[in-house]
């Protein structure tokens, strides 16, 4: 009886998994809209980071709710890959800026210059 | 009760600063708002008691990656005047497409039943000690391969970024 009461209390106090799903969905959509509406390549890269973070948070929330640490380890790997992605992506953007004098992605629609 | 109000505060902070990232004209402001978003997400990790992820998120994202972005922005000397703008109809089309994707996702996720997962309980699973045990037992090979990936990325970035000799 007391155990049951404690469980109920815990469930009331904690945040339902649905809220994390809605929040992550909203954050992901903001990232998608950023990619679709901006022309600055650096801001597009930042929007991709937003989407990655939304997915990371949802993975961590599912991991905690299921009591399985593998999800959090996976988030750690995603962060490592994201760091590598940003380093290479920014290097490419710097190179493009050096060659064209702009970071506008609409200039780079021919794949050569 | 405090946990819930903290959750809503952090969620709104994260979403509003994320919106500010894609709305702000000046790219430097975008980066600063993105740092705010990452701090809010770090707060979410702390609420989930995923302390290792909270620290890693703060050090790797808010620390390393955002400094990289700021450095590149200031190196290229980008500001609101040089910012390329898409025509209004493409912006509207982008927002409408994003809204439709949101509609699809909400419609799909409304039917999802997550009641089997149980509520968030204060486990000490997200501590460095427990995650380290999992990382170095089950995920030892991926962990070592991640170091190769980072080395490859570093070599690639240096090779791409250097001036043509």
Key attributes of the depicted protein:
heterodimer; A: 113 residues; mainly alpha; Helix Hairpins; 4 helices; 80% helix; B: 165 residues; Four Helix Bundle (Hemerythrin (Met), subunit A)
Provide structural commentary.
The complex is a heterodimer of chains A (113) and B (165). Chain A is mainly α and 113 residues long. Chain A has one domain: Helix Hairpins. Chain A has 4 helices and no strands. Chain A has helices at residues 2-13, 17-37, 41-66, 70-100. In chain A, helix 2 (17-37) packs antiparallel against helix 3 and helix 3 (41-66) runs antiparallel to helix 4. The radius of gyration of chain A is 20 Å and the shape is elongated. The model of chain A has no long low-confidence stretch (mean pLDDT 84). With 165 residues, chain B is mainly alpha-helical. Chain B folds into 2 domains: 2-124, Four Helix Bundle (Hemerythrin (Met), subunit A); 127-165. Chain B is built from 6 helices and no strands. Chain B has helices at residues 2-23, 27-47, 51-76, 88-110, 128-137, 140-161. In chain B, helix 1 packs antiparallel against helix 2 (27-47) and helix 2 runs antiparallel to helix 3 (51-76). The model of chain B has no long low-confidence stretch (mean pLDDT 87). Chains A and B meet through helix 1, helix 2, helix 3 and helix 4 of A and helix 1, helix 2, helix 3, helix 4 and helix 5 of B.
Q: Return the average pLDDT of chain B rounded to an integer.
A: 87
Report the uncertain regions of chain B: none
Radius of gyration from the alpha-carbon trace of chain B, in angstroms? 20 Å
Instruction: Give the class-level CATH name of chain A.
Output: Mainly Alpha
Q: What is the number of beta strands of chain A?
A: 0
Terminal residue distance of chain B: 62 Å
When the domains of chain B are counted, the total is 2
The chain-level mean pLDDT of chain A equals 84
Which regions of chain A are unreliable across 5 or more consecutive residues at pLDDT < 50?
none
Q: How many strand units of chain B?
A: 0
Helicity range of chain A: over 70%
The number of helical elements of chain A comes to 4
Give the full name of the CATH homologous superfamily of the largest domain in chain B.
NADH-ubiquinone/plastoquinone oxidoreductase chain 6, subunit NuoJ
The CATH topology of the largest domain in chain B, please? Four Helix Bundle (Hemerythrin (Met), subunit A)
Q: What oligomeric state do these chains adopt?
A: heterodimer
What is the helix/strand order of chain A?
Answer: HHHH
Straight-line N-to-C gap of chain A: 74 Å
């Amino acid at each position: 009886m007391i155990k049951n009461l404690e469980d109920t209390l815990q469930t009331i106090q904690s945040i339902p998994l649905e809220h994390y799903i809605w929040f992550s969905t909203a954050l992901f959509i903001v990232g998608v809209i950023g990619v679709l509406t901006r022309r600055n390549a650096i801001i597009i890269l930042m929007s991709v980071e937003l989407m990655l973070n939304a997915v990371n948070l949802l993975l961590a929330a599912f991991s905690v709710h299921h009591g399985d640490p593998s999800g959090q380890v996976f988030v750690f790997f995603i962060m490592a890959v994201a760091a590598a992605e940003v380093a290479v992506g920014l290097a490419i953007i710097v190179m493009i800026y050096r060659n064209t004098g702009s970071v506008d992605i609409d200039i780079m629609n021919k794949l050569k210059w | 009760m405090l946990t819930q109000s903290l959750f809503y505060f952090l969620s709104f902070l994260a979403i509003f600063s994320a919106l500010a990232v894609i709305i702000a004209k000046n790219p430097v402001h975008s980066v600063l708002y993105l740092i705010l978003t990452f701090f809010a997400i770090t707060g979410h990790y702390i609420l989930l008691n995923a302390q290792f992820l909270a620290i890693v998120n703060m050090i790797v994202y808010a620390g390393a990656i955002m400094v990289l972005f700021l450095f590149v922005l200031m190196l290229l000397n980008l500001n609101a005047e040089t910012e390329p703008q898409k025509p209004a109809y493409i912006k509207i089309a982008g927002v409408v497409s994003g809204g439709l994707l949101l509609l699809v996702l909400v419609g799909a996720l409304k039917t999802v039943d997550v009641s089997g997962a149980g509520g968030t309980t204060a486990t000490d699973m997200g501590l460095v000690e427990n995650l380290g045990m999992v990382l170095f037992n089950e995920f030892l090979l991926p962990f070592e391969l991640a170091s190769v990936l980072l080395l490859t990325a570093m070599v690639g970035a240096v090779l791409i970024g250097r001036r043509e000799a």
